[in-house]
Amino acid sequence: MTARQALIVRGGWEGHKPVEATNLFVPFLEENGFEVRIEEDNEVYTDRETMERTDLIVQSVTMSKISREAFAGLRDAVERGTGLAGWHGGIADSYRDNSDYLQLIGGQFATHPAKHPDARVGDETDNYLCYTVDLTDAGRRSEIMAGLEDFTLRTEQYWVLSDDLNDVLATTTHPVQPYHPWHRPITSPAVWTREWGQGRIFVATPGHSLVVLRDVNVRTIIERGMLWASRTASV
Question: pTM of whole model > 0.85?
Answer without folding.
Answer: yes
